[in-house]
Amino acid sequence: GTTYDNSTSGKLSQTTGLGTGCNAYARDFVQYVYGKSLTAGSKYTNISELRAGDVVYVTPQHWMVILERNGNNVTVIHGNWTGGKVCQSSYTISNNKIGTQKTFSYGYHY
Hints:
Layout: H1 21-34, E1 42-44, E2 55-59, E3 62-70, E4 73-81, E5 85-94, E6 97-98, E7 102-109
Antiparallel strand pairs: 1-7, 2-3, 2-7, 3-4, 4-5, 5-6, 6-7
């Protein structure tokens, strides 16, 4: 996969210099797929609103793209994971957490 580690800025001209790692990947995704900036979506803070196509921020400090939601199960893609690579992961949503260690903070619908 493509590297989006902590030293990697966005790869699209509109996103270069705005963030690194998982943030750069999220920015590139939104620019490429929706033709918008990361924060141009409709912001929400209730995890129940999570849906496919959203970009979400979780703590501690990580951005993810929601590929699919099926009930309390989500499949995401994110940068700067497993050695700085872009990868796909699956998690369960429970008690405002995505997986066991990622607390949902907010997301964007586009």
